[in-house]
Amino acid sequence: MRVSVVGCGSISRNHLxxxxxxxxxxxxxxxxxxxxxxxxxxxxxxxxxYYDFEAMLKEDKPDSIHICTPHYLHVPMAVSAxxxxxxxxCEKPCAISEESLEILRRAQDESEASFGVCFQNRYTEAVxxxxxxxxxxxxxxxxxxxxxxxxxRGVDYYSDEWHGTLEKxxxxxxxxxxxxxxxxxxxxxGADTACVTAHTFNxxxxxxxxxxxxxxxLFEYENGVKGLFNATTAFTDNLPVMIDIICKRATLRIEGDxxxxxxxxxxxxxxLKDKESLIGKSYWxxxxxxxxxxxxxxxxxxxxxxxxxxxxxxxxxxxxxxYKSSETGEKIYLK
Length: 335
What we know:
By secondary structure, this protein is α/β, with parallel strands linked by helices. It folds into two domains: 2-120, NAD(P)-binding Rossmann-like Domain (Rossmann fold, 3-Layer(aba) Sandwich); 121-271 and 309-333, Dihydrodipicolinate Reductase, domain 2, CATH 3.30.360.10. The protein has helices at residues 12-20, 35-45, 53-59, 74-83, 98-110, 125-136, 166-169, 179-189, 288-301, 309-328, and strands spanning 2-6, 26-31, 48-50, 64-67, 87-91, 115-118, 142-150, 193-201, 214-221, 226-232, 242-247, 251-255, 258-263, 266-269, 332-333. Strands 14-13-12-11-7-10-9-8-15 form a nine-stranded mixed β-sheet. Strands 3-2-1-4-5-6 form a six-stranded parallel β-sheet, with helices on both faces. The longest helix is centred in the last third of the chain and has 20 residues, at 309-328.
């Protein structure tokens, strides 16, 4: 299968390295409007460099593309590829507005190609192990969830042409960094989000960026589970994400790539069979490789990839509701 990686920034390095190690996958091209970045990636992985996305689609005609571009380009690029019958694996978020999400879902429905969203944290061993325990009901039903994302993003991070802008990034910490944790909360709750009450702030870089650096939100899920969510990029370090799932008979905790059971005042560490090596930054987790392998396994077997425009788009619906709640001061119900 011939694959093109679109966008040669930081996260693309994970995709390129993983794809280059996979059997039955040929890296045919890379694309970036910045010639030096495209050339460097093409030289390293022995493929062709393009500086125009549409030109790549017409000339290279890959079987799949991986979209690793700024957020505002995700939908138009995905739609163009899907119309050509090209499979698409897209970095999060898959869309940054209700209108663009609807367009993306329609394009997926009308295409015979596969579409997937890169929520790689669903594929870490810690998350998989905890999810299995929840699905089996080992510690009883889930009652509530709390999650913390405390990271550091300074002025340098926002020095490019799109980070920190409403038009191109679509938001701040809620859209970019903490969206993975937000997705996991719903995943662990085992039900879609019914409503959101949220407050967003810019405490750290006021006047420097247009978007929020801090969010506090209450998610209420359709099965009655409540989720408390706190995320910020105004901290001084990138701490491991922590999620507590409070069940009837115990609390399950994920902290970074580790998982624990807290019961009767005792903390027991789960033994994880984690064979994945870390690629990229530690707080990205180890899930990219198993997610990408699963995406291509689903294509080969003719199966639907589990995190498509509908499932992956739920995170978009949630963060848009969070912004609306913060703006209006009201609880926002999702349709």
